[in-house]
Amino acid sequence: MQDLSFIAWCLEHLNYGTIFLLMTIESSFIPFPSEVVVPPAGYLARAGELSTWGVLLASTLGALAGALINYGLALYLGRPLVYRFVNSRLGHALLLSEPKLIKAEQYFDKQGAISTLVGRLLPGIRQLISIPAGVAKMHLAPFVFYTLLGAGIWNGVLFALGYFLPSFVPGINTKEELIEQVTKYSHEIGLTLLALVVLVLVILFVRHRLKRHKA
Fold first, then answer.
1. Long-range contact list for 100-108, CB < 8 A, 24+ apart?
2. Of the candidates 134, 130, 111, which has an alpha carbon nearest to the alpha carbon of residue 194?
3. Mean pLDDT of the chain
4. For residues 187 and 174, what is the distance between their CA atoms, to the nearest angstrom?
5. 177/156 Cα distance (integer angstroms)
6. Helix, strand or coil for residue 55?
7. What does pTM read for this prediction?
8. How many alpha carbons lie under 13 Å from residue 70 in its C-beta half-sphere?
9. Where are the alpha helices (DSSP H) in 15-139?
10. pLDDT single digits (tens) 155-170
11. Is 10 in contact with 18 (CB distance < 8 Å)?
């Protein structure tokens, strides 16, 4: 209960430090939706209480910090100990489950390193995609790059929703009403972003093949 009270306090006192801390929590083992952090921060930026770049930097670096925690633990503990932790009483208390981790691991095995980018946009995989990257001993530099890119895209969209949505949707007069609307459509937002990323990757792949063919 004290942990929940602390999180609630952070949400009530959003600044660059609490945004970074909450996004670190969200991106690590502890389940916590970014939809209740970044859009309200965007709402505060709209009111002039925070800066756009400050929110985006704090939220994205926080997401990277949490991802590095998962990556580091998986890298040094190895697959058997990670699964043992997930199946432990503490793992269950953190809402972790073996099926979720298996799903993230299968996705990583299928997509390779790029999954650390695409996986950041997928509900249910976003927080766990760093674990199979660590287990597979993915090189740190591309892991950091793809994580920053994926987290930056996702946080940018959530920030834009918090900043602009009150202008287009009537009845959003508080942070709580904003969170309700953003959470309601977060799944659709993630799928739309995923489709856009896939489209860009396909275009880049086709252009690469055409250049090789001409050469």
1. 100/124, 100/128, 101/128, 101/131, 103/128, 104/128, 104/129, 104/131, 104/132, 105/131, 105/132, 105/135, 107/132, 108/132, 108/133, 108/136
2. 111
3. 77
4. 22
5. 20
6. helix
7. 0.76
8. 32
9. 16-27, 38-46, 52-77, 79-86, 89-93, 98-111, 115-118, 130-135
10. 998 898 888 877 777 6
11. yes
